[in-house]
Here is the input.
Amino acid sequence: MRGRLLVLAATVFWGTSATLARYVFRDRAVPPSTAVALRLAIAVALLGGWLAWRRPAALRVRRDDWLYFVILGLFGVAAVQGTYYYAIARLGVGLAILLQYVAPALIVGFDLLRGTPVRARVLIAVLAAIAGTALLVGGVGQGGRTIALGDWAVGFGAAIAFAFYIVYSKRGLRRYAPDTVLFYTFLIAGVFWGCVTPPWRILAAGYEASLWLAFAALGVFSTLVPFACFYAGLRRLPAADAGIMATLEPVVAVLSAALFLDESLHPIQWLGAALVLAAAIMAGSDPAAIEAQVERA
Here is the structure.
């Protein structure tokens, strides 16, 4: 029970932090790139300080692995962070997070293209993800809302980037502790987004104190706290159980957005959401993929 409560706490932090990000973008007119840069900088500073104090050995990596961390940091974490936050800003919380949960089915589809044998239930998961995504996209027009093709492309790009991250992170997770991979990939992604949105430009924007508190909350409660809860729970639960519970994240995000931002899905999109979540549960039971989930949010 303690393990389940810890994983549940992680999903609550991940889901509600997406709502906070949407509020910052929609109601406070903060560019997604600014929030990404600050979130990564805060997370790196806190996680790096904690590792230096409590686990200095976790900061040591082999010289031969630096290229691997650069690739994973840029094309995995930096790409996931940027596309996901942009999708939240443009598509809303529910659509953005549910589209990213298509990633497990994309991984299965990639395995199929390579000729890897796949079980029948996993094939069903792929079909469910495709059908669910079609309902999510098709249901947008019910509210008279239109979404630009480029915004849809970024939303699906977030799923592709997340799928790449899950697959490519397996090598690092075999050699290093998860917090080592988390720190260095976030560091590299933070440097990238710090170049896109330099610190002096952020300071020149003159954000008020309440916004800086929101930025701090995004850095702490969307990364470090759920990271600690998830892995504490994972130590007490089978990986598959933890992964299934983690799929509650979109549910929390959609309910949170409905409660605090008056955003919700249309009836046909709720059916699509159920299919996408079912697909994620069926296709995402690989323990390595589950461990990699923690670095998405």
Notes: The mean pLDDT is 83. The radius of gyration is 18 Å.
